[in-house]
Amino acid sequence: MDVDLVLLESSLWVGKKRYWAVLTGWHFNWTERDKKNREKMTVSVPVSEVVGVEVSQRSQSEEADREFTVFYVKRTSSRSSNQLLWALGRTQFSCPSRDLRDQWLTQLRMALKTHSPSRPHRLLVFINPFGGKKQGSHIYQSLVAPLFELAGISCHVVVTERANQARDHILKKDLTDFDGVVCVGGDGMFSELLHGVIGRTQQEAGLSEHDPTLTLQSCDLHIGIIPAGSTDCVCFATVGVNDPVTSALHIIVGDSQPLDVCSVHHGSSLVRYSVSLVGYGFYGDVMAESEKHRWMGPLRYDYSGALVYLRNRSYAGIVQYLPADPQLSSPRDKTRCLSRCTVCSKSTDRRLLAQSTNSSSLHGSQFSSDSEGEWVSVEGRFKAVSLTCMSSSCPRSPLGLSPSAHLADGTGDLIIVRDTHPLGFLTFLHRHTTTQDQFDLPFVDVHRVKAVRFSLPLGTEDNEDEDEGTVKDEGLVEDGEALSKSGSQQHLAERVEERGMTNDRSVKKKDLSFGLCCSKTPSVSVWNCDGEILPYPEILCRVHGQLVRLYARGIEDRSAPPFTNCKGRAFLHN
Ligand SMILES: Nc1ncnc2c1ncn2[C@@H]1O[C@H](COP(=O)(O)OP(=O)(O)OP(=O)(O)O)[C@@H](O)[C@H]1O
Ligand SMILES: CCCCCCCCCCCCC/C=C/[C@@H](O)[C@H](CO)NC(=O)CCCCC
Ligand SMILES: [Ca+2]
User: Fold this and answer.
1) Global pTM exceeds 0.95
2) DSSP strand E in 468-572: where?
3) What is the pLDDT of residues 311-362, one digit of tens each?
4) 187 an active-site residue?
5) 365: which of 29, 152, 410, 447 is 20 to 30 A away, CA to CA?
6) Is the CB of 160 under 6 A from ligand 1?
7) Ligand 2, atom 10: nearest CA belongs to which residue?
8) Whose CA is nearest to atom 19 of ligand 1?
9) Catalytic residue among 34, 168, 177, 187
């Protein structure tokens, strides 16, 4: 165990009050002393949460020469939602002498370097100027850039001019010297960074992303999210709040949250990666519908949700899944994945152990579904089939699609909502907005899984002109082009474009719902993959444990003190 050695201690003044300040490797504490030298309240800031230290900005004077300011993370509550926010705290200290001020500056800066080594120094930032309420550039310039500057982080900023620019940049450009990539935007922008970072890492490792049985190489380059989109589900589920300052501070302190990622395959090709939702039926239809109403901004989801609900559709399908080990956790165990989650830590331990015992290393090894257990099959008509690697909480649904899902346990939760009467389905949807258990309904099943396969029952009309064979051998589909390994690229690209499967949301989409205008009710829905529509109903999903890392630490437990000193005594945080 690390010993919390005192690096520097002295008397300091804050305004007219005298404090005894102590800097150890892990904490900077200052305790008020009254005139009789009795100790009053202590304020304690972990060194890892110090943002920066500055000399006084005031004009040169003897007094100013003895001052320094410490900037640090301060926890506050949002007035409207009672959520835990991080803000920038600052305290200006005055020293008895300039020499002592210099000692404090040196020691604090040294402690930051040695005790907070995972902080980023150089970041590549992508701003989507059109995401959410189109505030991305303003949010970055006014709230985030000044914090990065204060923390001494240098940034290369790219304001995107087209969809997939960020992904392509990460895949192709020289990223030497960058510690991480950051997006200012919504889940769509995050997804671009996710695809860029995973793709690049596999390229460098010489691994094929198309093979669902292959264990992919986990990515070193961290991803930061400054929320400025419509749903911002990934940010909300990994930080607990959608607040640009909170997220910027998590980036500055170099937090590191591993995240499970699901790869979605069709035939022998990778289609996309997902972290929050792979959803067929209701969520697919809502996304398809909402693309026609992008001009409404974030409200498009409520409008489209109501329309799709009123259509009251269900779809036939065969869902197969590979259950995760039920001894480890369950989607109905009423626990929540919080910061320092023990379920996720055990998963990390198992991964490390597997790496150390498997001489050929875990990466690049085969995932054998035979040794991984038996596939279970469910056939029927479904209102919705959803797979989520995390809770997928968001402001619309504060506990999420699966409240007990874990960010980094190597599993996903499969939620099967069988066909039911409209009121039952409304109850299910409504429970997402409350604390009532949405799985405690007779037509809902939830399973913790490692992989899922979805297929259409024989004879299902695919509502498409082409036969399945044409599609089978074609490849990764992005922004209206098929990045295929083989097959008729042009043909698929046309079809994708026709059905609106493009990632460029500035492009006006054709009707994806194949519904309202047609007399015939469609028998096939579409998949919503983290907000993108997939062109294939038949897919295979596999969860890759802890494939990427975010600048986040999971949701902090408000009931636990954020830290304790080495003697285990709780301190008051400023
Ligand atoms: N300059 C651009 N012009 C058009 N589209 C862009 C541009 N930059 C990024 N995009 C695309 O816009 C899509 C949506 O952006 P983003 O995710 O930032 O916001 P959103 O859709 O409002 O939020 P959410 O995804 O949280 O619902 C992304 O998928 C991204 O690929
Ligand atoms: C009677 C009240 C009914 C209210 C229904 C509330 C149900 C809310 C569940 C929200 C689940 C969000 C899952 C996250 C998905 C994101 O990856 C994706 C991209 O941003 N967003 C959507 O698909 C947007 C999906 C929007 C669905 C409505
Ligand atoms: Ca998970």
Assistant:
1) no
2) 476-478, 481-483, 527-529, 532-534, 539-550
3) 999 999 999 999 999 999 999 999 999 999 999 999 998 888 887 776 444 4
4) yes
5) 447
6) yes
7) 397
8) 131
9) 187
